[in-house]
Amino acid sequence: HTLDARHPLASGLTANSRIVRAYQGERQAVTPVWFMRQAGRSLPEYRELRVGTSMLDACLDPAMASEITLQPVRRHGVDAGIFFSDIVIPLRLAGVGVEIVPGTGPVIAKPVRTAADVAELTSIDPQALDAERLAPIAEAVGRTVAELGETPLIGFAGAPFTLAAYLVEGGPSKDHVRARTLMHSDPQAWSALLDWAADLSGRFLRAQLEAGASAGQLFDSWAGALSLEDYARRVAPSSARALSHVRGLVYEVEAPDAATPAADGPPPTRTTTRNVPLVHFGVGTGELLAAMHDAGADVVGVDYRIPLDEASRRLGGLVPVQGNIDPALLAAPWPVLEAHVLDVIARGASAPAHVLNLGHGVPPDTDPEVLTRLVAFVHAL
Ligand code: CP3
User: Fold this and answer.
1) How many angstroms separate the alpha carbon of residue 86 from the centre of ligand 1?
2) What sections of the sequence does the record tag as coiled-coil (predicted)?
3) Separation of 75 CA from ligand 1 center, angstroms?
4) Potential cystine with 351: which of 49, 72, 175, 312 (Cβ 3.0-4.6 Å)?
5) In this structure, are residues 69 and 153 in contact, taking their beta carbons and an 8 Å threshold?
């Protein structure tokens, strides 16, 4: 499927941005940087705007979602915006009872514990998440990319396991024991649940990419709770299914043509087709990196528990990586943070390309000035 000619990738606005080219495997002179959870509670302008509006209502208000997405881009000068939304938005749009409880996270009205619960939930056709229901998402993305200009927007969705972890537990949990029990005691119900979640997330992500996002990230935040064997057998096929909804999105660009000898006149170019880049991220997933790449991502996001050179080695040295500043160091004295960031960048050099990020989200009590200083520091290197 070819993107609309007005899409920021197809029109050329973002096609040669540092972040898109790094995701496509081309090492950049200046390391591109953005932060997971850069939009949100660390910013006073966010806290002010959110007063009186629930999290999920804010996500579904296109003007508000767009403004919140833009706040950290304006303030920090990061290389990309990350769309302000949540992994449970497709559940909400499909009619599932879900709230985000401040300080806790997603809470599911009717936890999905048995095969009968799975059958009831999956009787909701994922195609119910049609263009009409996704309109607030497409509108928010459209408004945002119109403001962002040459700065790419990253779209995202939750991976099926992370969504299932909330659906089965009913809320946040430490080791996702109930979810893992269901996975083994009823593999059929489990895979029906994951495939259903994959289709919802896939449609949610596709809507963002078609409306103007220049890259997509699948968040499997809790996949680190799984063994490699369980992940590969019981989870990865559904993550691949989620990614397959957006795997075929392509656009055309005019790129320098090395094959044609330069004569007089403008340097020769040739039309090339490129894929919309896809990132796959999880926390505590050092053992799963290669399997996460195999699920159909171009880039693997790495958390702070494994150094990037080792992560790259596990990926065969051929896969662009994203990460992995330890978020805890954002509150450390600047020289400590600076040394850590230099180490992360040095280790990232062993991958074909590197996009700097945190190993997980920005902690809510982070001093935003630190993030601004960090971006300026990296861009000046
Ligand atoms: O800046 C960004 O990264 C963009 C927006 C974003 C949010 N959630 C906004 C949000 C993204 C990419 C997410 C994804 C998300 N949501 C994940 C995967 C990423 C990760 O952090 O691992 C997960 C697991 C969720 C589920 C969820 N939603 C959690 C765990 C929480 C935090 C609960 C809390 O209060 O600590 C939320 C709520 C949420 N999502 C907030 C934000 C800014 C906080 C809402 C608030 O302001 O109260």
Assistant:
1) 6
2) none
3) 20
4) 312
5) yes
Domain span at residue 172 reads 18-255+269-380
What pLDDT score does 298 carry?
Answer: 98
**Is residue 74 in some structural domain?**
yes
For position 146, which CATH number holds? 3.20.20.210
d(CA 102, CA 100): 6
DSSP 329: G
Based on the structure, what is the number of domains in the chain?
A: 1
Give the model's pLDDT for residue 132. Answer: 97
Give which of 10, 79, 55 is closest to 272, Cα–Cα. 10
Active-site choice (18, 23, 79, 86): 86
Q: Which structure tokens are listed for 371?
A: 């993030």
Question: Model confidence over 26-41: pLDDT tens digits?
Answer: 999 999 999 999 999 9
Residues in CB range of 229: below 8 A, 6 or more apart: none
Q: Is 225 within the bounds of a domain? A: yes
23 as an active site residue: the answer is no
- Number of residues written out for the chain: 381
The answer to whether 160 touches 194, Cβ cutoff 8 Å, is yes
From 18, 21, 23, 50, active-site residue: 50
pTM: 0.96
Q: Does the pLDDT at position 92 exceed 70?
A: yes
What's the pLDDT tens digit per position in 116-163?
999 999 999 999 999 999 999 999 999 999 999 999 999 999 999 999
Would you state the structure tokens that stand for residue 286, as one six-digit string? 């050092």
86 is catalytic: yes
Contacts of 227 (CB under 8 A, 6+ apart): 287
pLDDT tens-digit readout, 263-322 = 677 778 888 999 999 999 999 999 999 999 999 999 999 999 999 999 999 999 999 999
pLDDT at 331: 98
Task: Please indicate, yes or no, if residue 151 is contained in any of the structural domains.
Answer: yes
What's the whole-number average pLDDT of the chain?
96
Whether 54 is covered by a domain: the verdict is yes
3-state helix, strand, coil in the chain (%, to 5): 45, 15, 40
